[in-house]
Design goal:
- The chain is built from two helices and no strands.
- It is mainly α.
- The chain has helices at 9-20, 26-37.
Length: 44
């Protein structure tokens, strides 16, 4: 992944909702998982 290219928090939230929705298709879930893998890690 190129530095500076990360998924925004809003997009990560939307991707998370797609993954939790049982009605979405496999292609949508694949795209959402890809977006979440590029999201910055939350600091504790």
């Amino acid at each position: 992944m190129a530095k500076g290219k990360q998924t925004s928090p809003a997009a990560a939230t939307a991707a998370s909702k797609v993954l939790r929705d049982g009605r979405t298709g496999a292609a949508s879930k694949t795209a959402a998982a890809s977006a979440l893998s590029q999201a910055p890690k939350k600091k504790k």
